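Section 5.1 Outputs to date
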Amino acid sequence: MKTGYTAEAGYCLTATAKKNNSRFIAVVMGVSDSKTRNAEVSEMLNFAFAQYETEQLLSKNSVLGTLEVEKGKQKYVDIVPIDNITILNKKSDQKKIATYEIEVEDLKAPLKKGNIVGELIIKENNKITRKIGVTVKNNVEKANFIELYFRYLKDIFTGDIKI
């Protein structure tokens, strides 16, 4: 990623490497020569790949739930994470137990894919480790009065009405 040298900082290197689904970053500063700097970064990255692995918990296409959209052309929409969710495990340890919860605000049309509508709370071994936004899987346009009227009539006949 970045190499450099100054009299004050010595030889420096910031490097990244990816293997399988794992990406690691190594940073070395204040080394006396570039050969040592490069060897130390290689050693750090090799250690990381030997000791750790990432596990994909959810993809950005994973449907977390289906919720009703108020005044939407579609009555329901799928909720998905805005990004892939991975966890880091040490290979010699037991894998972490990962769980999640979602918190979503009331959905009102129009909705655009990519807009944050709530939060995905990731827990590893029952501790909250991060929070990630969730969005809708598809855009939902606002329904007009006639569409809503006919949906309401249909809901009455099918017994799918909320009172």
